[in-house]
Amino acid sequence: HGILEMGTDQHFLLSGRTAIDWILQDIEQPIKNVYMPSYCCESMLQPFIDRDIRIIFYNVIIKDGGIRYVIDYTKDVDVFFANSYFGYSSSTMDFAIDNFKERNITVIEDITHRLLSKQNHSPKADYYAASLRKWFPIPAGGFAAKNNNSFKKDTKYNPPHNLIEKKIAAMNQKAAYISSINNGDREDIEIKNNFLAQFSEFNANLLVNYRNFSIDCLSMQLLTDINISNIRSKRLENAKLLHDRLNKIGQIRLLFEELDVLEDCPLFVPILVSRRYKKLLLCHLIENNIYAPAHWPIPLGITLTK
After folding, report:
1. Tens of pLDDT along 89-121?
2. Ramachandran bin of 296, using left for φ above 0, alpha for ψ from -120 to 50, beta for the remaining angles
3. pLDDT one-digit tens code per residue, 238-290
4. How many angstroms separate the Cα of 212 from the Cα of each of 21, 59, 109, 246?
């Protein structure tokens, strides 16, 4: 797909963390530390932890009107890790990437959130990583690209067959469960607990066994057949509807007030609510069979500035 034709070399891998680890293996100079955003998923940290790379955090402050980054541009680091949030062009980190590249510091950009936006990567980053299963109905999938030259490494291994099979079974059970709810049938708690357990098992396996695996054949085939423009159009249609309707609810504030339908393609439409109203809202959503997961619980050992 055209959206993934960036850089000069691309690899399709098992997961986003596999992609990050693949990139780390390619960086020639020793990596003692990495400068990462404080608002992140633990799976993004894992490859650095497993390679004993010290993680230094810059602060990501989420508040009314958008996202603010508190970055020390003089920091002595080996790698700068950028993440542009939610697919809104107003949150991209291109300015920070430019700054660190002027100091000749290696930059990895996680492009997962901006993958379907019109400008989905910074042209100056050295490497790009993405988790493809955040966007597409595929069992697994990560993406790594290098901006200049080819990756030194090319040898990948097929992922464990039983791991992918379990993920597919869990996805099928979840689809059947959601369909039964939408049809007004009684909820089957056992089915729900079963597919949740299988998703947890898949993620637990990835935690310890993710290096050097390629994307599985089924996910690659599905990815090849997916109509990206249709997905982008539907996402934008949904996001615009949410922006229009949520603006009319007094207790809810949109993190990003504006949606640029020509440039953006949100992965999420993030909202801000009071702690008290959050509990009421979650209960209301659950009563209507909408289950809103926490987007990135705070990783262990990180203190976020309010």
Report:
1. 999 999 999 999 999 999 999 999 999 999 999
2. left
3. 999 999 999 888 888 999 989 999 999 999 899 888 888 888 898 888 888 77
4. 8, 31, 19, 43
Amino acid identity for residue 187 in this structure: E
What is the maximal distance between C-alpha atoms in the chain? 60
- Print the SS3 string covering the chain: CHHHCCCCEEEEECCHHHHHHHHHHHCCCCCCEEEEECCCCHHHHHHHHHCCCEEEEEEEEEECCEEEEECCCCCCCCEEEEECCCCCHHHCCHHHHHHHHHCCCEEEEECCCCCCCCCCCCCCCCEEEEEHHHCCCCCCCEEEEECCCCCCCCCCECCCHHHHHHHHHHHHHHHHHHHHHHCCCCCCHHHHHHHHHHHHHHHHHHHHCCCCEECCHHHHHHHHHCCHHHHHHHHHHHHHHHHHHHCCCCCCEECCCCCCCCCCCCCCCCEECCHHHHHHHHHHHHHCCCCCCCCCCCCCCCCCCC
Total residue length of the chain: 306
Residue 193 tokens, joined: 């607990």
CA distance 177 to 144: 34
Structure tokens at 39: 């608002």
Which of 117, 145, 118, 119 has the alpha carbon at shortest distance from 130? 145
The CA distance from 130 to 114, in Å, is: 9
Amino acid at 112: T
What predicted TM-score, i.e. pTM, was given to this entire model? 0.90
pLDDT (mean) for 122-144: 95
